[in-house]
Write a structure and sequence with these properties.
flat, SH3 type barrels, 5 strands, alpha+beta, five-stranded antiparallel sheet, single chain
Length: 245
Amino acid sequence: MPDLSTPPSLPDLAHVLPVAPGPSRHPRLTRFRNRIMAGITVIAPLWVTGWVLLTLFRWADGISAPLIDRLARSLGYPDFHIPGLGILLTVAVLWGVGTVAANVVGRRLLHGGRQWLERLPLVRTIYAPVHQLIESMASPGQRGFKQVVLVEYPRPGCWALGFVAGSVPRGEGVPPAHSVFVPTAPNPTTGFMLIVPPEQLRSTSLSIEAAFRMIVSAGVGVPADLSLPRRSDDQPSSNGIHSES
């Protein structure tokens, strides 16, 4: 029979319980690692910025490069190539199209061409929304986004930046709701379209450009004049978005 006069010994829990970390035993290795991380924080943003700019340069230069190469070969210069010449030609084409679009005759021609494209069954499903989105981003003070707001999305207590795009009627005697575009980060060309009552929106003093910069930076570049409501049910109705009469 076992001896019951003495209690059984408890197992050693030193290998089970977590031990608070103490000071590093390798201060030189820690300093070396900290120096490496400090160097990465300096070099990595510069490298990424340079890579993005170089990629954009090559992409913009390559738009018109085939046309320049074909023209150079027809003139007897098959090896003709000047880096950046394609960008200059692209800018010149954009400026020319913009000049045409700015006058009365050009606007009528472009409007007719746009209507023709929007009649095509497959083309209109792609062209119309892309045109509206680009127009909203390019002209925020005209037919584009009207205001930057905060909307509780995707759940109460979690706020997202949104852009008021238009009004949606809710019935006679009831203030209209608002169509709000909530872009995804860091690519603001995609997102969600929400229809939200005005009392559930919170106005901000952010400009369209400042809000886009915050979204593109994935929330790293927070504007100084952005502040969140404490709670959605604590906010007075004066903070909501009111429709213009």
